[in-house]
Specification:
- The chain has 66 residues and is an all-beta fold.
- It has one domain.
- It is 0% helix and 15% strand.
- The chain is built from no helices and 4 strands.
- The strands form 2 sheets. Strands 1-4 form a two-stranded antiparallel sheet. A two-stranded antiparallel sheet has the order 2-3.
- It is globular, with a radius of gyration of 13 Å.
């Protein structure tokens, strides 16, 4: 079985965000985009066909631990 890796940016239209997300970004971030939220219950949806997915994130000034 061949392994393939794809990178999907948080600004990609394939990702659907619930209300409460802030969209911003700057230098040093992948494609200079960031999606963040402090809204309890906020979520995102990304549908793919495969066996696994990794979500990469960095806590920042808008990070709110649960």
């Amino acid at each position: 079985m061949t392994s393939r890796t794809y990178t999907v940016d948080d600004a990609d239209s394939q990702i659907q965000y619930s209300d409460g997300w802030l969209r911003r970004g700057g230098e040093g971030e992948f494609n200079a985009t960031t999606a963040s939220t402090t809204t309890q219950g906020a979520s995102f949806n990304f549908t793919f066909l495969g066996t696994s997915a990794k979500v990469r994130w960095l806590p920042g000034p808008f990070f709110c631990p649960a």
